Amino acid sequence: MEHLPTTETKTSETEKKKSIYSLQLHELKEWLQENGEKPFRAEQIFDWLYKKRETAFEDMSNLSKGLREKLATQFEITTLNTVIQQTSSDGTIKFLFELHDGYSIETVLMRHEYGNSVCVTTQVGCRIGCSFCASTLGGLKRHLEAGEIVAQVVKVQKALDESDERVSSVVIMGIGEPFDNYDNMMAFLKIVNHDKSLNIGARHITVSTSGIIPKIYKFADENMQINFAISLHAPNTELRTRLMPINKAYKLDDLMKAVRYYIDKTGRRISFEYGLFGGVNDSTEHAEELADLVKGLKCHVNLIPVNYVPERDYVRTPKEKIFAFEKTLKNRGINVTIRREQGHDIDAACGQLRAKERKEETR
Question: How far apart are CA 213 and CA 230, in angstroms?
Answer without folding.
Answer: 11
